[in-house]
From TrEMBL, chains A, B:
It comes from Effusibacillus consociatus. SUPFAM superfamilies: Winged helix' DNA-binding domain. Residues 96-179 form the Transcription regulator PadR C-terminal domain. This is PadR family transcriptional regulator. Gene3D superfamilies: 6.10.140.190, Winged helix-like DNA-binding domain superfamily/Winged helix DNA-binding domain. Residues 11-83 form the Transcription regulator PadR N-terminal domain.
Amino acid sequence: MPRENKSRYAVLGMLSLEPMSGYDIKKKIHRGIGEFWSESFAQIYPILKQLVEEGYAVCQIEDQEGKPDRKVYSITEAGRDELMKWLSEPVTYYPLRIELLLKLFFAHNASPDVSIHHVEQFQKRMQDVLEEYKNVEERMVSAMKSRGNWLRYRLMTLRYGIYSVEAALKWCEETLQELNGIKSGKGV
Amino acid sequence: MPRENKSRYAVLGMLSLEPMSGYDIKKKIHRGIGEFWSESFAQIYPILKQLVEEGYAVCQIEDQEGKPDRKVYSITEAGRDELMKWLSEPVTYYPLRIELLLKLFFAHNASPDVSIHHVEQFQKRMQDVLEEYKNVEERMVSAMKSRGNWLRYRLMTLRYGIYSVEAALKWCEETLQELNGIKSGKGV
DNA sequence: GAGAACATGTAAGCGGTTACATGATTAT
DNA sequence: ATAATCATGTAACCGCTTACATGTTCTC
């Protein structure tokens, strides 16, 4: 059972929203679902070519002055079928790898300061991320009054990010306390 | 800046706890830090060989009857230095990829039942995981009374898992409500 | 008798990142 | 001037998974 390529579906899914160029796809993925997904050009362009070969997308070339030609891809009916098929298949869960925790696990021989520093960096990061997510959320909630279901699904994914980050922040506080306890040599 | 190999440090880190064979390392990683890390034999054995070549580990062969020889690896002083160096370097954060959310994001055209099913599966999974983590936690807390710092660091990593899973479960509840709302065609 | 645990490894191949290549236009 | 945005692609390489290869002992 060869490992299936999820990037294909990320690209195909983006085309299901509206016709787009490879460049647009990169941007939309980054800005739209950057909390939980990413793709690079080196993945997107070959996939696009492949999707056309398989009949899941078609390509129209738009001439532009000065800039390179824009290749705008549209999803086909077969492409939508393929996407829907993937959507209904079970979700596969890959093992997480969290480097921060790996370091923490091996840090008992080093100074607690090393761990404290890493956790504090992580905490700052999470604080920034949370703020950004909340801003996005606010804008989405006010934009949602009139619009359709798409935004509601988008909001669900964002809420996952918010809950995760809040959990991470709670953990940072607890862990920093514990590390400071170890530092000052106390039992607890 | 080539992407650095974290598996090496996972293996080296395991050897820092005690001398072990490749087989032991696999087991220890799975049972000990399986919540946030994993390695396969196809990674471990070549890395072990490489670590010996680099002088970060040494190997002793134990003859066994019936079973294949056990190759027990021990970390060297140079190996400990290398591990400590890595520990103090900044943590690198790789972009997450969460397939469940990718599907959810593209699911607005499909039936809400598809999404409900995926989220329910995820919820069950998280419930099982939480129960297991709590069991492990309980055992660790009672074992910790007398032991040193190692367990305290281990507990911190486990707590991260617990908070994450609790957040996921909160999200599942909220999201299932939302999806059921969409299903029954209501505005909210 | 089946399967898990013990034990070590190799080969093939994919998925993904990083760096390279090119070049105009617009904004600061 | 400098950087960012627009725009498309290729090449090299590495990390990792999956499958293969082999064989014994212990447990259900």
